[in-house]
UniProtKB/TrEMBL annotation:
GO terms for molecular function: DNA binding. Its main location: nucleus. InterPro entries: Homeodomain-like_sf, HTH_Psq. It comes from Acanthoscelides obtectus. It holds the Pfam family HTH_psq. It is found in: Nucleus. Transmembrane segments: none annotated. This is HTH psq-type domain-containing protein.
Length: 78
C-alpha cells in the first residue's frame, strides 16, 4: 500500500455547495456558464451538465458520489 499518495489530477476538487451556488447563478440568469465556471473555479462542462439537469427538473440534487465506480468494502470500525 502506498504511504504517501500524491494525487496527479484535479478531478472532482469542487464542493457540492460551490456547484449549487454556481448552478443557481446560471439558472437565475445572473451570469453565463463560462463566467460562473471561472468565478467559482469549476469545470465548465460539469457545470453545464448540472445546469441542464436543473432546468429540466428543478428538484434535482447535486451528487458527487454518482459515477462508474462504487465502494463495495465496508468501512472498519476501529
Amino acid at each position: 500500500m502506498v504511504r504517501n499518495y500524491i494525487r496527479k489530477t484535479d478531478r472532482q476538487r469542487w464542493s457540492s455547495e460551490t456547484m449549487e451556488r454556481a448552478v443557481a447563478a446560471v439558472v437565475s440568469g445572473v451570469m453565463g456558464c463560462k463566467k460562473a465556471s471561472i468565478q467559482f473555479q469549476l469545470p465548465q462542462t460539469t457545470l453545464e451538465r448540472y445546469v441542464k439537469k436543473r432546468r429540466t427538473d428543478p428538484n434535482s440534487v447535486i451528487d458527487k458520489t454518482a459515477g462508474k465506480y462504487h465502494c463495495v468494502l465496508l468501512k472498519s470500525k476501529r
